[in-house]
Design brief:
Blueprint (H helix, E strand, L loop, with lengths): L1 E6 L7 H13 L3 E5 H7 L10 E3 L11 E6 L1 H6 L1 H4 L6 E5 L14 H10 L3 E12 L9 E2 L2 E6 L6 E7 L2 E8 L1 E5 L7 H4 L11 E7 L9 E4 L4 E7 L3 E6 L2 E6 L4 E14 L5 H9 L8
Parallel strand pairs: 1-2, 1-4, 2-3, 4-5
Antiparallel strand pairs: 6-7, 6-17, 8-11, 8-15, 9-10, 9-14, 11-12, 12-13, 14-17, 15-16
């Protein structure tokens, strides 16, 4: 079986952990390939041997690879989406960061994780993506997101006006600093910090959450992900920010934008039988009694 490994940076305290991971993968006779940029980070710190290969783009892994291991936090998992694309390669997130909501496998579980990959004893969570359509090219054709799409003001303190439509009918004109369209997966991220609700991953919804709206009676709203949401933006500044997860582009009022459900999903691996409610309690402290 073939495994791709992706990471951003390696911290000194994580060197033994990463070395152990590669040792286990090689001992279990996995064919291992490391993303080229991450390989530059670790090649003088980790003993990789001669069998470990490199890859650069999604074209290098889309046909033959069985798994992709993400080493880092949730942002690192989001980085892997342009590599996985619609290949349906399952992603295992090993958390070397802080929260680790998506990258749910802890440092202490690496041996169990490799064993689960070898014996296929993991569970797969299929997560919905959102797709961005635009009348002008954006994001190099990788125009989908796992967490959220957003529109933001740029380079000014003035609010922007985001005219928002559902299936061609006007929903609202948001006077705000920005607007977030989040998937159920993204409902526990940026949208939550702006007052949006938590949505179960299997819910077939999007949540529309304004960022610092001018009108206090404008609240987040949940809509079916069968809807097509379209936007027209205006403001004092000529330019605005458009984001997909952690990626961003500068746009202007000439851009016509629409968001809908993507035609494929992303597969996240779990090696433990933790359910979603347990995750939001332990990771987010949801429902915790803080009076003691």
């Amino acid at each position: 079986m073939q495994v791709a490994v992706y990471g951003r940076l390696i911290q000194p305290e994580d060197i033994p952990l990463v070395q152990n991971l590669f040792n286990l993968l090689i001992d279990c006779r996995f064919e291992v390939s490391v993303h080229a940029r991450y390989h530059e980070q670790i090649k003088n710190k980790i003993s990789l041997g001669t069998k470990v290969k490199n890859f650069k783009t999604h074209e290098d892994i889309k046909d033959d690879f069985d798994y992709l291991i993400s080493l880092g936090g949730d942002g690192t998992i989001l980085d892997t989406l342009p590599l996985v694309r619609n290949s349906n390669i399952p992603i295992l997130g090993i958390n070397t960061g802080r929260l680790g909501f998506l990258s749910s496998t802890g440092k202490e579980d690496i041996e169990d994780a490799v064993d689960a990959l070898k014996n296929k004893t993991y569970k797969i969570d299929k997560r919905t993506l959102l797709h961005l359509d635009s009348n002008k090219p954006l994001f190099g054709g990788v125009n989908y997101a796992l967490n959220e799409f957003s529109i933001h003001k740029k380079d000014t303190s003035a609010m922007i006006n985001i005219h928002t439509y559902i299936n061609g009918e006007l929903l609202n004109s948001y006077w705000a600093d920005g607007l977030i369209i989040a998937t159920p997966t993204g409902s526990t991220g940026y949208s939550l910090s702006c007052g949006g609700p938590i949505i179960f991953p299997t819910s077939e919804n999007f949540v529309i959450t304004p960022v610092a709206p001018h009108n206090l009676n404008v609240r987040p709203i949940i809509v079916s992900n069968d809807s097509v949401l379209s936007f027209a933006v205006e403001g004092r500044n000529e330019n605005f920010l458009c984001t997909l997860d952690s990626r961003y582009e500068t746009i202007d009022a000439a851009f016509q934008l629409a968001v809908r459900k993507e035609g494929f999903t992303v597969s996240l691996l779990r090696i433990k039988d933790d359910n979603y409610l347990n995750t939001i309690r332990t990771k987010l402290g949801w429902g915790a009694d803080l009076r003691n």
